[in-house]
Design goal:
406 residues, alpha+beta
Length: 406
């Protein structure tokens, strides 16, 4: 595996500056291209899976996190409140309280459930300087988050569907989980008391854990139980990844939460005409964008899957005589949504330019013969050469091939 902190900077994907601060990296154009590709991908996947995308502010009143339980159980990882007039505002450590309020803002019928809400949103964690590193541990996080509000009888199906979304995303990204964990409360856990690590009651926790066990068992996934690693409001499935130094971290999660629907007094009107309490399923398909990109760098190095590659096509005119046509090809490729660049003839010999751009998924060679016929000779990253084809057809083939799962 590659060290993403070193290679990410060498590839001009991201960097940091002391004036911005530790744990606050910025994205350079090539890294931004990868990030945008991931964001578009997950938005499309979630839309197809019935999610409604939303946006919510990165600030909230302290009272919001007192209601959710974050202030009592999680404040050590939160930034201190900012006094704004008569109010105290907090940089959010999580998106779920905002989504709970968005659900509560409208009345809901049982016919609307499950209601799936998703967002790629900013959140902030007051991480210690000693644990920060590259993109994998940061203080400002863009999280692929989602919350499903559903009836109790729908919980297992929704959690199973979320697990399949996660597994499909890993296949599309070309990564693998190192382990699946069922994160549970500590064995001596007490629930609901002010000095307890966990909110809620023992029955709700046992019910949530049983549902998640069934999800993993029915999926045929080997997993380990991890007492003491549950969220403060419920057990969770943690999908683990491993970095180049052998350190393990969670990328994706699925959580079942009976607590916040109670705290925010969420309800829906059932078929009987009465109010009922929904269950909240938290899920993150690809986790934080930062940690996902860090792992992609460590797994793939400079040779990203074609749909994620910062540059997907490099056009190489053999001589300056083909450069005008090469510029036209570049414009056509960009117009079709292909991330393309032109490697001019005066930048080196053809072989030198091929070596320089060897990590691009596709190279288009344009010599006198190809120019005369308005064809492109395509070389793929594996070294295979495709027969010369008309420019429009060659670009259409590339456009099709750079889609996820292609």
């Amino acid at each position: 595996m590659y060290d993403h902190r070193k290679l990410g900077r060498e590839l001009d994907l991201f960097d940091s500056d002391p004036l911005i601060g530790a744990g606050l990296p910025y994205w350079l154009p090539a890294g931004a291209a990868i990030r945008q590709s991931l964001e578009r991908y997950i938005a499309d996947v979630e839309r197809r899976a019935g999610y409604q995308q939303v946006y919510s502010p990165v600030l909230g009143k302290r009272e919001l996190y007192e209601i959710s339980g974050h202030w009592a159980k999680y404040s050590d990882d939160m930034y201190p409140p900012m006094d704004i007039g008569e109010e105290q505002l907090v940089l959010r450590p999580s998106l779920c309280p905002h989504h709970a309020l968005m659900y509560r803002s409208r009345s809901h019928s049982y016919r609307e459930l499950p209601l799936r809400m998703s967002e790629i949103g900013g959140m902030y964690r007051s991480e210690r300087s000693g644990v920060l590193g590259g993109l994998s541990r940061v203080r400002a996080i863009q999280l692929n988050d989602g919350h499903i509000f559903c009836r109790l009888d729908q919980v297992a199906g929704e959690a199973s569907a979320a697990l399949e979304l996660i597994n499909q995303a890993y296949r599309d990204m070309g990564i693998k989980a190192s382990r699946y964990l069922l994160s549970l409360p500590s064995e001596d856990a007490r629930f609901g008391s002010p000095d307890s690590k966990y909110v809620g009651d023992a029955d709700s926790w046992a019910r949530s854990a049983a549902l998640l066990r069934d999800v993993l068992d029915n999926a045929g996934i080997d997993y380990e139980e991890s007492p003491g690693d549950a969220a403060f409001y419920g057990p969770k499935i943690d999908i683990q990844i491993e970095d180049s130094a052998g350190r393990e971290s969670s990328l994706s999660t699925i959580q079942i939460d009976f607590h916040q629907p109670e705290r925010f007094d969420l309800d829906y009107i059932g078929a009987d005409g009465n109010k009922h309490r929904p269950v909240m399923v938290h899920r993150s398909v690809i986790g934080s964008i930062e940690r996902a990109v860090a792992h992609l760098i460590e797994v793939h190095g400079p040779a990203f899957p074609a749909w994620l590659a910062p540059v997907q096509l490099v056009i190489l005119p053999i001589s300056s005589a083909e450069e005008k046509l090469a510029s036209d090809v570049l414009r056509q490729a960009v117009a079709q949504g292909i991330r393309a660049e032109l490697a001019y003839a005066d930048e080196g010999t053809l072989n030198a330019r091929i070596r320089e751009n060897r990590h691009a998924p596709y190279l288009a060679i344009l010599g006198p013969r190809e120019a005369a016929a308005h064809h492109l000779a395509i070389r793929v990253r594996s070294g295979n050469k495709l027969p010369a084809a008309p420019i429009a057809a060659a670009l259409a083939d590339i456009q099709s091939a750079i889609q996820p799962s292609a």
